[in-house]
C-alpha cells in the first residue's frame, strides 16, 4: 500500500509528495500540491447517458472536499443534436470521438477549468461498491416504484431495462436498491418528487453523505481498499490504482463536516 499509493498528477505536472505531505508550488493559476480536481461521472445502465456528473475539489492541506453536481439537463454549446450535457458522452462516442474527453471539454466550458482526473462509473461498479461496504443505512424520502421497459434495439420487442421498488423510510439499502434510490425520478403513475430534478439531486447528495459517513468508520478501511480496486478494474479513468488508493487514504483524514456537497 505504501509503495504503490501516490496522488494523481495535476495539470501543472507537479505531483505532491506521495507520503501525503504536500509539496506546495504557487503558480498564477493554482497552488499545485494542495488542490486536486476530479470529475466523477455516473453512466446509465445502457452505458449511454451520463446522468450523474459531479465535480470534486479536494484540499490536501486542510483535508476538505467540495463537491458540485452539474444537473443532467444543463444546456451546453455542442454540435450534437441534443444540447444537454448528459448526452455529450454518448454522442461523441457515436461519432467515433473520445466520449470522456468531449465531456471534459463541456465541463471546462461551464466551470472555466479542466479537471485533473476523471472516473466514469457504470451501474455495476456502483452496486458492487455499495455491497462491498456492507450496504448503506438511509432514510428513503418517498415510495419508489418504477419499471423501465422500451424497445432498445428497435426490433419491435419491448425489453426490460431496470426497475426501482423501494419503500419510504429508514432502512439498509443493498447495492441494487441504493442504485434505484440514486437514479429515481418518478413513479409509474407520474408521482414522485414535487420539485423534480431538484429533489432528485438532494436525495443523491444525502445518499452520498450516508455512504461517506459509513465509509469513514474505521472498521471499513479494508473495504475502501477493495472498493478502490473495483473502481480501477471496471471503470474508465485516467488514474492509476495507486491514485485511487491515495484518494481512499485521504478520505479517511476527513470528517463529515469536511465534506460539502451542493
Keywords:
262 residues; 23% strand; single chain; globular; alpha+beta; two-stranded antiparallel ribbon
Describe the structure.
The protein is 32% helix and 23% strand. It has helices at residues 88-94, 99-111, 123-133, 175-183, 197-215, 221-234, 241-251; strands at residues 25-26, 31-32, 35-42, 52-59, 64-69, 117-121, 136-140, 144-150, 159-166, 169-173, 236-237, 259-261. With 262 residues, the chain is α+β, with helices and mostly antiparallel strands.
Shape designation: globular
- How would you classify the helix and strand content by structural class? alpha+beta
Low-confidence stretches: 12-23
Q: What proportion of the residues is helical, as a percent range?
A: 25-40%
Query: Strand order within the widest sheet?
Result: 11-6-3-4-5-12
Rounded radius of gyration (Å): 19 Å
Distance between the termini: 32 Å
The counted number of beta strands is: 12
Residues in β-strands, percent: 15-25%
Give me the number of helical elements: 7
Topology:
Elements: E1 25-26, E2 31-32, E3 35-42, E4 52-59, E5 64-69, H1 88-94, H2 99-111, E6 117-121, H3 123-133, E7 136-140, E8 144-150, E9 159-166, E10 169-173, H4 175-183, H5 197-215, H6 221-234, E11 236-237, H7 241-251, E12 259-261
Parallel strand pairs: 3-6, 5-12
Antiparallel strand pairs: 1-2, 3-4, 4-5, 6-11, 7-10, 8-9
Helix pairs in contact: 1-2, 3-4, 3-6, 4-5, 6-7
